[in-house]
């Protein structure tokens, strides 16, 4: 296909502004999907995505529009998945920036728009949802012009729901987004921007050809892995995988080369020809730094190797988490994993359980601290139980965030109060319009990870939006808090916390654990301690009699149900010393931050 007839674009927007719905309309309008097979959110192929109604993985689809080939990459909107957005953008020349015409610019609108500018991409802006009675396209067109410097007369007005204006939007893409650069006759350089593992076909990689041409029977070298493979199939996602004989400069497609070792086709990898290699690889991706850590342990210790294997495979599809082996006195062998945020952590855990059939326990999440010990040595501590004793520490510094909040001005007071309670420091405040304001805070990451986002949403009735980026480290008055169950410290519950909050947190955590830990045949004391000092204590009283005893004389089905229920509960329990702790206890411990 001639380069002048290719357009590579992403759709970027704040969450819920209509990216997936627009992708659906584009697939319909370009007749890429058989109408009988069309369903909502077509590109959100994972179960979790469809259930939660959010896009986690960027997906690509190749469609034809009036003689042009438009390669479309749908991107996730949640702040945890900014990394996916960034990788998608590296394969594009332009973006459609969607803004909800009843809401205007939100925090991720700004963040994603800045990313597009950083990548030097052409921005085609469109106001979506003009069918809504509450839509105010004129008002928000001026807002976009004032805040983002995009000429208001160039902004399209569409409804991704009804399809109004979508054809004009595609015309604008063809007209305004530049064709891909790249030299057909140069040695092959193709960028892998995503990979996943298919049980039957091995690794399937998404790639964008930058220079040269790749054919369906070439021998290709993966430049970083330094491995050579025979191409088994190349093709385009239209959006169904369709084999082709070649992909030239600017083209986006997939590659299958019988690769079984997931480590060989990581995203950011460059593919070239074995017989005429390119001199240098393309610039890869900078790996994102994990922000939140937790331990993942199999409930059944025998599943350890399986967990390792699954982490390897998942890593291929999501290069943004990290893992390394760790052991816990309470939980045995597992992995310390790093994530981009709490949602990311939840999703990875859920995918491991669903896609790989594992039962896991996640320990209390923690951020990564920088500790200077009394010998002046710097330690990175991502696991609270690895924190040195207080008398060996001269300073603990915690990671900070630059937080950007956009809100109706009526909520300024509410937000200030919330940020203050989270040890935030106001940096600046700008009015976008008389009614809406952008507020910048510097806040400790540890205070954000737990529930800041949800609290912000509920206190502003959903009107405030938030985005953040890392902003270095800052020394703080922090301490380690341990939990002892039946006298034994359970390292999985250890946490690092600000001294002013330790008592309150300790009290609430032991109270919560008392509710969650079922009665055993003996009294189980639960204690919170700082060093050797116990600051809170509760007891789970021993149960009196076998539960079944109650059922004698009762009917048999009730008894069976009870037994089954107990068995169900058992599967989700972890024995720690003599005490059985349900999986929920480990998870719920987070929600009390
Ligand atoms: P995404 O998070 O950006 O992918 O947003 P979605 O495509 O999932 O859309 C979020 C919600 O907005 C869904 O309930 C859509 O049905 C709705 N929506 C999207 N576009 C329109 C539109 O043009 N008009 C109306 N009324 N609703 C829309
Ligand atoms: Mg979506």
From TrEMBL:
Q: What is this enzyme's catalytic activity, as reactions?
A: GTP + H2O = GDP + phosphate + H(+)
Pfam families found in the cross-reference section = EFG_C, GTP_EFTU, GTP_EFTU_D2, LepA_C
Q: Which GO terms describe its cellular component?
A: plasma membrane
Annotated GTP binding lies at 16-21, 128-131
Question: What are the residue boundaries of the Tr-type G domain, all occurrences included?
Answer: 4-181
Q: What is its EC number?
A: 3.6.5.n1
- GO biological process annotations for this chain's record? positive regulation of translation
- EC class (word): hydrolase
> Is the Cell membrane keyword given for this protein?
yes
Q: Name one GO molecular function term.
A: translation elongation factor activity
For whether the record's keyword set contains Flavoprotein, the answer is no
Supply the SUPFAM superfamilies for this chain. EF-G C-terminal domain-like, P-loop containing nucleoside triphosphate hydrolases, Translation proteins
Q: Where is the signal peptide?
A: none
Q: How does it sit in the membrane?
A: Peripheral membrane protein
- InterPro entries, per the entry: EF-4, EFG_III/V, EFG_V-like, EFTu-like_2, G_TR_CS, LepA_C_sf, LepA_CTD, LepA_IV
Q: Which UniProt keywords apply?
A: Cell membrane, Elongation factor, GTP-binding, Hydrolase, Membrane, Nucleotide-binding, Protein biosynthesis
Q: Family, per the entry?
A: Belongs to the GTP-binding elongation factor family. LepA subfamily.
State what this protein does: Required for accurate and efficient protein synthesis under certain stress conditions. May act as a fidelity factor of the translation reaction, by catalyzing a one-codon backward translocation of tRNAs on improperly translocated ribosomes. Back-translocation proceeds from a post-translocation (POST) complex to a pre-translocation (PRE) complex, thus giving elongation factor G a second chance to translocate the tRNAs correctly. Binds to ribosomes in a GTP-dependent manner.
- Give the protein's recorded name: Elongation factor 4
Q: What organism is the protein native to?
A: Ferrimicrobium acidiphilum DSM 19497
Q: What is the lineage of its organism?
A: Bacteria, Bacillati, Actinomycetota, Acidimicrobiia, Acidimicrobiales
